[in-house]
Design brief:
Layout lengths: L23 H13 L6 E6 L6 H17 L8 E6 L10 H6 L10 H17 L3 H13 L9 H8 L5 H10 L3 H15 L2 E6 L7 H14 L5 E7 L1 H9 L8 H8 L2 E4 L5 H11 L1 H4 L6 H14 L3 H18 L5 H13 L1 H9 L1 H4 L10 H12 L7 H11 L20 H6 L6 H9 L9 H7 L6 H12 L9 H14 L8 H9 L1 H6 L11 H14 L4 H12 L4 H14 L16 H21 L9 H8 L4 H14 L1 H8 L4 E2 L8 E2 L11 H11 L7 H29 L9
Parallel strand pairs: 1-4, 1-5, 2-3, 3-4
Antiparallel strand pairs: 6-7
InterPro entries: KAP_P-loop (IPR011646), NTPase_KAP_P-loop (IPR052754), P-loop_NTPase (IPR027417)
Protein name: KAP NTPase domain-containing protein
Pfam family, one: KAP_NTPase
């Protein structure tokens, strides 16, 4: 993606080339009215609009039309002089009007000498920090001086530009006047005599402090009597009017006082929603260009964007936020969610704070009260209470669009159009509702233990070789991460989620082969990942299932046969075969249903290859290096080999305590999270494989073997206890069954 250019949010200046929101026709009509107005005693126009609504752009367009009018005047006709006065740039002075008019009582006729001294002491400071009123008056005086002409923008740059245009000398002239009143009258007479017309534009009144707003409005009221001077003021009424009221407890003059100053107020036309949305679409096209239309996207637009974008500045704020965030996490998070989250951050701060502050509840690692119906309802009520009644349902919909799992909070509230997207789909698109997307957004980077989308896409490419697939797995496995979240497990989960929604023949066979190559490493991972999560082995097994379901070609069958013939990890291959055999209905595993994965003939063919491998490994002794044996036992026992398996397990268990400890893994369960692990035996061992009496004897023999690890001895001890209890129960049952039953009581 090319680097997006930030919107500068500067007002536009050229109504002929930059009018994207329809302000030019309005500005043209306003400029024409100003040109036609006859104001012998001055005239004040107010342009009212909300903050960020485009007032400055409209003023610039008005000025542009007037300047064009001046340029096209016939010879001999006088132009209208424009003074662009921006008081907020030089705001902060306490006595603006006093600084300009030198309001000294007319009774102090002998103050002429005192004023001269004051002038000498303060003139240097005045030139450095010129009050805007002084600036404006000096500008008018400069325009009236021969050869100076129109001074636009002197209010902004007076300190640096006034000297070049005669401003400094005019300040001297005004300060030399013995009375500001006489200076005002002199200025008024000069305007009348020379028949000049002025437009004084005052923008951004709503940026000033309350005191400064009142000062500027008083200035306009005073200077508003000047002949042929039209003032065009831009402001937000909701800010300026309260400022005029502030401090007037006994005499509320708000609109009444303003109406004494502003003779004509005009409402800035509001840009159409379509124009604003079109502008936003242009600004963020790099993000939305490839977004497909969907019900979810429709709700983001309706419940989010349409409520957020009301003024031009809203477009600039949202587009700039997206332009800043996206490059850091490009393609690692759903672009729809980036737009939605940035909108929530800017325009729905309470919702944003809730999402940011409830990670544990969102992803099930905290707040177990939400596991109950009562707890969920309570959490939903607490969420709704954060918002005004009018926006409660809309914020609930936005939350569920971003975090679909949170629909559980509102199950009994009957809110219209709540999102019910599956977790698999959220993870696949890396939405905020997935841990990867959530952490990437709030961290503004891809967490170290997160799997990049680029890696996932590379792994799912048919162009990635078997060796490259294996290299990816090794790289991910080598990453440092929290003990209960091995990155390789996250990797397999992300892949299987993507394939779960993929089309037929889209799963690369190279990926399956590389997983088999990595099988021994996968089986070596012996870390608990919590009761609610799947470990690397389970995720790898489910990933292999998805790959098999998506491949039906003869090439896939041939390569799978060759893979088994290449003698991959025996234990890993046995596990693969057991699940495929259960899906084909060849063996029974509790809780496992039939699926159309591999056809029965292929499963049987793979079994023949694997059985030969097992027997050869037993003969060579290599089999004793395998980590576990329950899947190997299932494979070998298939086709009536039960007795062989029982005999081999019994003999090997009696001979080797470490072998017995491995056998325990297929019989015992253990608690999750305890350290050291605590083992238990809840079910009797499958006697198809295990001779209970022989295993108990082996456990008695090896329970205190000093060559074993503490964990291995703990397993054997638990096995001994469980088998002893089982044997005792059976003995009691046999004794009860064999004892003679009397026909009656003895005399």
């Amino acid at each position: 993606m090319s680097r997006p250019q930030f919107s500068d949010d500067n007002p536009k200046e050229n109504p002929w080339t930059e009018d994207r929101l329809g302000f030019a026709p309005f500005a043209k009509r306003l400029a024409d009215s100003i040109l036609e107005v006859d104001a012998p005693n001055g005239y004040v126009i107010g342009l009212q609009g909300a903050w960020g609504s485009g007032k400055s752009t409209a003023l610039n367009f008005v000025q542009a039309f007037i300047e064009k009018h001046n340029e096209e005047l016939e010879e001999g006709k006088k132009p209208i002089h424009v003074i662009d006065f921006r008081p907020w740039i030089v705001s902060g002075h306490q006595d603006l009007i006093e600084s300009f008019f030198k309001i000294i009582t007319e009774q102090l006729a002998d103050q002429k000498d005192a004023w001269a001294k004051r002038r000498k002491a303060g003139l240097r400071a005045l030139r450095k920090n010129v009050d805007p009123v002084v600036d404006a008056a000096a500008a008018i005086g400069s325009i009236l001086a021969p050869g100076v002409g129109t001074l636009a923008g002197i209010g902004i740059k007076f300190a640096s530009e006034a000297a070049k245009k005669g401003g400094a000398s005019k300040i001297d002239e005004w300060l030399a006047e013995p009375s500001l009143q006489s200076a005002y009258e002199k200025l008024r007479k000069r305007i009348v005599d020379q028949d000049e017309k002025f437009l004084v534009i005052i923008d951004d009144l709503d940026r000033l402090t309350k005191d400064e707003i009142r000062t500027i409005m008083q200035m306009v009221k005073t200077l508003g009597r000047l002949p042929h001077v039209v003032y065009l003021l831009a402001y937000d009424r909701n800010i300026v009017w309260p400022a005029l009221d502030d401090g007037r407890k006994s005499e509320k003059f708000g609109p009444g006082f303003a109406e004494k100053i502003i003779q004509q107020e005009i409402e800035l036309p509001k840009p159409s929603r379509n124009a604003l949305l079109s502008l936003l679409d242009t600004e963020i096209g790099f993000l939305t260009g490839n977004i497909s239309q969907s019900d979810r996207w429709y709700r983001i637009v309706v419940d989010g964007v349409h409520n957020w974008i009301r003024y031009p500045r809203d477009v600039a704020r949202l587009s700039n936020a997206v332009k800043f965030t996206w490059p850091a996490i490009e393609n690692e998070i759903d672009p729809q969610d980036v737009l939605a989250m940035e909108g929530v951050r800017l325009f729905e701060p309470d919702l944003f704070d809730w999402i940011r502050g409830n990670r544990e509840s969102i992803f099930g690692t905290g707040n177990w009260d939400m596991a109950t119906d009562t707890g969920k309802a309570k959490a939903g009520d607490a969420f709704m209470s954060l918002f005004p009644i009018s926006s409660q349902e809309r914020n609930a919909r936005l939350l569920c669009l971003l975090i679909p799992s949170m629909t559980k909070l509102f199950e009994k509230k009957h809110i219209f159009a709540l999102n019910s997207e599956t977790h698999v789909r959220v993870v696949n698109r890396r939405g905020i509702g997935s841990e990867q997307g959530y952490d990437a957004y709030f961290g503004l980077h891809i967490p170290d233990d997160s799997i990049s989308v680029k890696i996932i896409e590379r792994a799912l490419s048919h162009q990635t070789t078997r060796a490259e697939q294996l290299a990816i797995m090794r790289g991910i496995f080598s990453r440092e991460a929290s003990p209960n979240r091995p990155p390789i497990g996250e990797y397999f989960q992300d892949l299987r989620f993507r394939l779960h929604e993929a089309s037929q023949n889209s799963a690369p066979i190279n990926l399956l082969e590389a997983i088999f190559d990595f099988g021994e490493v996968i089986l070596s991972i012996d870390k608990d990942v919590g009761a609610l999560m799947l470990g690397p082995q389970a995720n790898a097994s489910l990933l292999l299932l998805e790959i098999c379901k998506l491949n039906r070609s003869e090439e896939f069958k041939d390569r799978l046969i060759k893979l088994f013939e290449s003698r991959p990890s025996l234990c890993f291959a046995a596990g693969f075969w057991v699940w495929r055999a259960a899906e084909a209905g060849l063996i029974k595993i509790d809780g496992h249903t039939r699926e159309d994965t591999l056809d029965e003939n292929l499963v049987r063919q793979l079994h023949g290859i694997l059985s030969t491998h097992i027997e050869e490994s037993i003969e060579s002794g290599e089999i004793y290096n395998e980590p576990v044996y329950f899947h190997i036992s299932e494979v070998w026992a298939f086709n009536d080999n039960d007795k062989k398996v029982r005999s081999w397990i019994s003999a090997s268990s009696l001979a080797d305590g470490r072998f017995l400890a491995k056998i325990c893994r297929g019989i015992l369960g253990h608690t999750v999270g305890s350290n050291p692990r605590r083992y238990s035996m809840h079910e009797a061992p499958k006697e198809k494989f295990y001779d209970v009496s022989q295993l108990h004897t082996a456990a008695e023999k090896h329970v205190d073997d000093p060559d074993l690890t503490e964990d291995e001895r703990s397993r054997i001890k638990t096995l001994r206890t469980g088998l002893a209890s089982l044997l005792a129960t059976r003995a009691a049952a046999e004794a009860s069954a064999s004892s003679p039953q009397g026909d009656g009581e003895e005399d």
